[in-house]
Amino acid sequence: MLFHTSKLPAEIRVHHLNARINEQRKKIAQSTASKFELLQLTQQLAKEARLRKKLNQKIYVLDFKGDTAASAVENLREEITLVLATAKAGRDKIIVRLESPGGMVHSYGLAAAQLVRLRDAGFYLSICVDKVAASGGYMMACIGSEILSAPFAILGSIGVVAQLPNFNRLLKENKIDFELYTAGQYKRTVTMFGENTPEGKEKFEEELQQTHLLFKNFVEKYRPQLNVEQVATGEHWYGKDAKELNLVDRLQTSDELLLSLIPKHDVYMIETRKKPTLGEKLGLQAVQIADHIIPVVVDKLVERLSKTSLSLIQLRDPKL
Asked: For 280, which of 158, 246, 276, 310 could close a Cys bridge (C-beta 3.0–4.6 Å)?
């Protein structure tokens, strides 16, 4: 990785999609086409190669598949850094294939900030949504110079949600005292184990409204053609309806877009993959479990315990 050391070793790979697709086209033609048709394909591929060389425009494709914690941002930030150090703004273009139902505010705030780096550097950024970009996912999508959506992809959900159980009555029934000590009037507004006061609930609701306002202002900044008040109700829409509301610019899958670009442009897919450990290389099942699953479980447990309060407020659609 470039700027940040990850817990698990990883490497960035670059795939030339033109070479991959054309190789498959040749293999199919060799099995199904006549000699004349095979010659025509060879000439067509040579013509496309000359055209790409003449236009000299590269397309970089990044993938982001988000969970609640937007953990894929660790890879995204490094891939974007690589693109910024390599590509030429004003000539080359960036495509991000985005899939996310949203999640924690601070995590998706960082993920969105990574995409802002591309816009601020002068790159034309296309966001492709084939399945879902809701709530925090849509906050990322709206940064794009254009948003492309599959007809039945889910978009929108510009809202904020917070939910937590309260075990205070259960503790009282079992004669268990829960004591919470804070310094600062609003250091803790609501709690899972204490008795929540009307003042605390009111302050917590105020924080939700403030987060929602920030969310709406952010969307409005990067997508001024959108009537934010009309769509900032927490609802989500399918692609066709989303287009009518200006949540997206056109209906097209990422596959259609890439296939249309390959004849005239060099298209490169940037992928971050985890390096196999020694145990994985040797095919040792026990070592693989110990090297991968146990640290992940421990890290998740520690993360959950340490970030409980941070994960209360989320830019996430609970229906997805």
From this structure: 276
